[in-house]
## 1
Amino acid sequence: MAKRGHAVRGSPTGGKAPTKRQREPENVDLERENAALKRDLAEALEQQTATSEVLQIVSSSPGDLEPVFKSMLENATRICGANFGQMNLYEDGRFRPVALCNVPAAYAAWVAPTPFQPHPQSGLGTVARTHEVVHIEDIRTLPPYLEGNPSVVAIADLAGARTYFVVPMLKENELVGAITIHRQEVKPFTEKQIELVANFAKQAVIAIENTRLLNELRQRTDDLKESLEQQTATSEVLQVISSTPGELEPVFQSMLANATRICEANIGILFRYENGAYTAIATLGVTPAYAEYLNLGPIRPGSTTGLGRVASTKQTIHIVDTKADETYAAGEPLRRATAELGGARSLLNVPMLKGDDLIGAFGIFRQEVKPFTDKQIELVTNFAAQAVIAIENTRLLKELRDSLQQQTATADVLKVISRSRIDLQTVLDTLVESAVRLCEANIGQIALPNEAGYFQTRAHCGFTAELREELERIPFQPGRESVTSRALLERKTVQILDAQTDPEYKLSKAQRFWRLSQPDRHAAAARGSSDWRVRLVA
């Protein structure tokens, strides 16, 4: 223990209490540098994260630009410490807003998604002219604001913008748009912040270009698919034509089925045009009420209807809405029936032309207002041309068959004549049978003069023995009472289209007997008679 009065031995510090050592200047600078590096690293990491998010949106939304633009603006606005952002595309010298982020409601209500031309001294106007980044420290010092330019005043006063910058979106030095980032205070942006948005602008251009290429690829794919469908449909129709020579009904049905399917239509009708009137000869998907209307008889459409205009112009007629023009309002019968009984709204009428002559028309109807495309119209036009070819081929084939039948019949008669030179009855019977068969008739007769100067039936076809006895027993003279006596009187071929309506024609007892002797009137109708009118070859 120290004694009283004696001083305590001094410490190395000269009797002062020990203190911490003073920091050296280089250590302070190192800490500051570390802090700056940490801030830079955090900022770089944030920017990389934002870029990664944007790239992920780009890859996950091919062909859809809206989520890409939205993600870019949200990340750019957040990282730049800004209040709101806007993206505009540049087309034909005008900017068009395509995305907004955190825009104040007052300005959002004012801005419209329509193209606008900016003031030349505004941020967008300068970017359009220079294609370079524009950094405005205070929008309220710009000449456009002081002049009262509506766009600049709106973004400054309604949105409260003060400091902002505009980054151009360039594709090989061609301006395609711009990104604008705003602060509601006067506080300049850093170079790194502007650089980040510049990178987003590049990615936006890439996304736009990729979307354009993808849309072009999809369009080409759709075109190829549509072309393949049309070729397949055409091939099916041609196959039906080749497999059913001379039969038009399956050909027309195949055309209508393929045309309505590819045209996304509900109803298809093929009309034949003769003597200024249309007749529906094939239908598909027609409502019962409209079918009943079409079966009433030949249609003579008004001049303003689709079919009427086809008849006068011989051009394809495309009506977008059957109820939207004066033809419907005026109550034109065909238009009213088509729209109300058939339920047709959009319709397509395509002419069937043989040279310059109209021989028919296709009618393709939708029961909704939806215009037909050019390619759909082209397909129906091709079917119309094929229908004309099928009709012409059928006509030629029928003529060929008729000619062959006539030659065969002539050969048969000549064979009979050569074998039966003295048997006149056999020759006459062969002649009348061949004539009835070639004419697709029901009965026939050959009359020769007798010794008294009258004519009597010497050969017949289609009569029973009792009828033949009756005809052979009743002689007749040239006159107007029958087709045979009239031919003898006029010494030329005579045709009576309807004996029942001919005022001079008198139905003979034999013919009445023939009618009453038929056991099945429906079978006779199926063989070609109409309303029990007999086809007679005499």
## 2
Amino acid sequence: MGWSSWSLEATSYPCYGGQKIGNLGGGVVAFTHVSAPKDGTYLLKLDYVDGDSSRVIDLTVGATTLQIPVPGTNDNAWGTPQSLAVPVHLAACAAAVVAAGPWLGARPRRALWALASFCAVLSVAAAAIVPLDAVAALAMGGAAGSAVLLLADAPADRPTAQAVADALAASGISVTTLHELPASEQLPGEGTRYRAETSSGSRLAMRVLAAEDHNRDLFHRLARRTLLRHPADTTAPTPLVAAEHELLMLVFAARTGARADEPVMAYPVVGGGALVVTTAPDDARALSALRDEELTDPLLAGVWNSVARLQEHRLGHGELRPEHVLVTPGGGSRLTAFARGRLNAPSEVLGSDLAELLATTAIRVGPQRATACALAGLGPELLATVLPYLQPLALMGRARSAVAHYDQARTRAAREKAGRRTLRAGGRPSLLRDLTVEVSTTTGAKEVQLARLARFTWKSVLGLAGAFLVLHLVLPQLANAPAAVDALRDANWWWVLAVLPITFLSQAFSTFLQQGTIPERLPFGPTYQVQFASSFLNRITPSNVGGMALNLRYLQKTGIETGAATASVGLQSLAGALSNTVVAAVFLTSAGRRHSGVHLDLSAGRPVLWALALVLAAGGLLAFTPPGRRFLGDKVWPFLRAAGSTVAGIAT
């Protein structure tokens, strides 16, 4: 990445006689027709003088513009030169390592990442860049390399069918047929599923794990380690270790008396993968694939009976959902997919298993019937242990998403049935709340507190936020304390008394504006309190982000979909911007032209152009890839439809 001929320009501030006399407006320093000896990556060094605090300059090299934070001495000494280097090379190295990854082995990849990280550490140690810039450069380079792989259709890091057949033959299993299951029967992130038939006529089911599945689970583990106090999956085993672990869990599950898959073997596959082989019952289907009329009470009670055996022996499943329950044509059931299984599992894992299966079956058959079937298979004492874990954090990602979609569908149905109604925070349907009522009523258990699963509580979060505000907002203001005291001495307190009622009145107008940007009726009292709290948040957050986030969360709590709530907040911000524009225009018109030295300095709009370019690039990236199209269909379009219906409802 280099330029044979390039130019550089940066903003500057005019000085006079070597002394800084104030910020009189942005200027430009340009060096044109600068030639490099050859194409390549160059470390650009900037020499500057800044006796003030740090600031950000726009650096343009060729057609590329970078925003670079420039640290200052903050000692008002304008004769001390400083220097800064631009870390273009780190991003390029990270992008190259990621883009070349599929064609390299594990050791070369680790060596290249170690080299890139060493360069970053060396640059920080030499004071060439600040640590945050090094991390940002590596992250941006990794994102760029990933985008290249996504667009260029990089080879999948998965064993081929021939490699699977060779592994079976090497393990002593002779198969006559081997075929990969269709995409509708595959579970993303859980390997590739195969079916095979041996020369003796036995049918086998295989799950082939690859390094791709190992890497895909990284962010899931990081999220759970960050959010949960005691995450169940803190390590990332290799595919072979994961396959052997699952085989061992299947053996122990059968020993408990639960009906589970019959294990056959675990074996490595060429290319760093591994396979888990189990017996395949004839024409077995996943519980999630059955029709509603096929979900009989004896079938569900039988599943819960197997779960009871696991619970009694403290064997945790880790992902107890209908997709991991196989049903035979005769009505029997078998538990499968013990990849996250744990022996001597803690109460958090056992309770999460019960909560996950209870919630996902209640989506299909309803809370009352799901609870009755669980009671028949578990008994009242064991069923009551699920009460502290009927909360979103106890559910794995897919189960949590399914429950959220179910509650959203119930909210839409209730809104369409009731028409225009008054909304109240916390009034939206909740499957977990309904299950809590059903379990408490059925078992006769007293109300219990929810288990503390989150690593961070509201108290700790508010404590950290308070410390941040004290360090970054309150302490710097102490330097201006004498000026503030002098201003208070000269203040006219009668004007302060006159402004107080105006303050409360302005929040009433904000409340009316909030009520006018949503078709449903919002109660005046809580909405007024939210607007008052938003005004305080806007004082300590940039660009009114805090107030908008609070309004969005308030609307979500009243049962409004995220897209509709976002449209409401956007309309509220647009109305505020338009009113401010009108007031500013009236003021400028009334002020006249007597002060010719006063002028408006509008930005060149470059950030807007960059934002527009990024939006277009992201849209193209999503539209040209199958995962992107699925994301658009499942997330973006419903969001936009909800926002459009809200705007249309307000207009009509």
## 3
Amino acid sequence: MTTVVSPPPTARPMLETVDGPAALRALAPARLPALAAEIRAFLVEKVSAAGGHLGPNLGVVELTMALHRVFDVTAGDVLLFDTGHQAYVHKLLTGRRDRFDVLRQEGGLSGYPSRGESAHDWIENSHASTALSYADGLAKARGLSGEAGTVVAVVGDGALTGGMAWEALNNLGAGGRGRGYGPAETDQADRLHAVSPAPPAQVPAPTGSGRGSWTSLFSRAVLELGEQHDEVVAVTAAMSGPTGLAPFAEKFPRRFFDVGIAEQHAVTSAAGLAMGGLHPVVAVYATFLNRAFDQVLMDVALHRLPVTFVLDRAGITGPDGPSHHGMWDASLLSLVPGLRLALPRDGARLRELLAEAVACASGPTAPRFPKGAVAQDVPALRTQGTVDVLAESGIRDVLLVAYGPPAAACLEAAAALAARGIGVTVVDPRWALPVSAALADLAARHRLVVTAEDSSRTGGLGSVLAQDLADHAVTTPLRTLGLPRAFIPHGERGPLLARAGAVRLADRLRGSACAGRRTRPTRPLLRRECGMTAVEAMITGSAPPDEHGTAAPCGPPPPQHRAVSPPPWPPACRGQRNRADMTAQPTPILSA
């Protein structure tokens, strides 16, 4: 960093009279060069003393003055500075001159636009190449609502070298796909990007059971929400059909935005839509949200904007392989302050949680669901706080926390454990983030907590719960089940999950020295050194019971296996569940 020696303070009579945009516009044009000179001298003095971005702001003095004279930010016009550190002159001209002595100091003036400082700062923008996307969304929102005012994006200081700026420019200036062919030009979904020999299948009508694919169920649910709420708009990144948004686009073409293969732009454009008073639903595959993590964090969550991210294909997806398995999003989103993550266990919960997400106005939400068919609905016995209690035996040995789709298999495992004299309570948090206070209370009342999720166990939801229990001084041991920190190969979903379960069978139970052949190994089974392994084996289905319903005997592993410890792979299971016919046979979470 270069140190600049500041000149002695001097009188700046013109700058001292400009206390807002109206005063600037009242100045005669002939006086503007002198004001620009005073602004530069002020910046050199104050920024040199406090530290900050000097050169970039010296380069936009006349530009910022011109913007505030042409556009009226007090009457609805919006200025969005792409590189936020070029907003110092804007701060000067909007009444913050007296706070530059404490620039970038605790409690002082921010070095970037700040919504808490001024109504004229729309975005707290410190990451470059984002303003065009914000402007795109905000302008679309104003177009839908009829609100007056011009949205201006100020792009400079190298911002056009960032790829996201070009994503936005392409979206703002493109749209020529299908040119010259009427059906393609009028196709709202994707301009006939790809065609099939037969017309696209219609979304199946709702059924009493709510069965069908997760995507088709979401498609119907978001369409209904669009009918009920005019502020709901939909955004996708070249995936209107695969994510189920095509029917929404057909019915509400002005409220649907396909930005092309540009997830970063999609998220920040959605932020702009939310700033304009709308509630965007951004539908993407779970794996593709990874590409826009910075935008979720800094452009949506930092501003506490109501954007709903619908994450399709969460967990193991199958033939597309490691780049498409949706196993990273939960770990990433657990880092985002204020974000609410929903994991529906069945179709009924998907509809409920999506409606709750769209009703949330305090920040971002993210329902996620797997690929494939929806399991049979699993009703709750009761609700504790925001947590659904799905099964309880009255004996509080194990608290089994099922994050969404693994719920059905966890209920089967609970029945099998109950047959061995182990009391299990199965709960579904519904909203995995933030952690419900009820989970700490439930965990404190049990001897062991086991979590099951269809995402990475590294930094996953089980890890988040473990941290929360530690914060609340809950000492109950916790075991997390989830996907490994590994690139899982391609293949059919069922065999992939079955093979993962077989790996767990060989390693986990052989390492246990406690199961023996007891038919009811009650309390001793719960000792930390052996109980976790036995309970885990029952949940994953990795220990098939023998003819007496007991686990296979366990002992020390053969020497050649001592160093082998494959990580767990439990994603969603779609086993049907009915409390009246649950049996002692465990259903693996790792089955298709």
